[in-house]
């Protein structure tokens, strides 16, 4: 007997992230997992069902780095469309500040490293979402 259940439709997934800048330096994390393993990116993650984007961003960064953040404004919305891999992510990216804690890797299976980097000397390679957010940050289009 064959399974006649049609495959689930491909739908965009929802991610989130935050640009945290202190003393002119941007907080980035080095991903261990695909997609974009060994790429530096903004901290963040994906939404859970019935979770607001703001709550997900705060939760994901606490889970990844053990810090509490405050979201200060919406920087941009990243559209990451990868047709060859049948992947589409939409991710609001916020500006944020650290309220409590010092960043430290809390999920070593997902993140290899973290660091503060001057906007003029960022590590490479960067994730696609981070490149898009940086373009908005640099143009000042979202203040």
From TrEMBL:
Cofactor (UniProt): Mg(2+)
GO function term, MF aspect, one: hydrolase activity
Entry-linked Pfam families: NUDIX
Organism encoding this protein: Gluconacetobacter aggeris
Keyword Hydrolase tagged: yes
Nudix hydrolase domain location: 11-139
Sorted UniProt keywords: Hydrolase
Protein name per the record: NUDIX domain-containing protein
Record-linked InterPro entries: Nudix_hydrolase (IPR020476), NUDIX_hydrolase-like_dom_sf (IPR015797), NUDIX_hydrolase_dom (IPR000086)
Transmembrane parts of this sequence: none
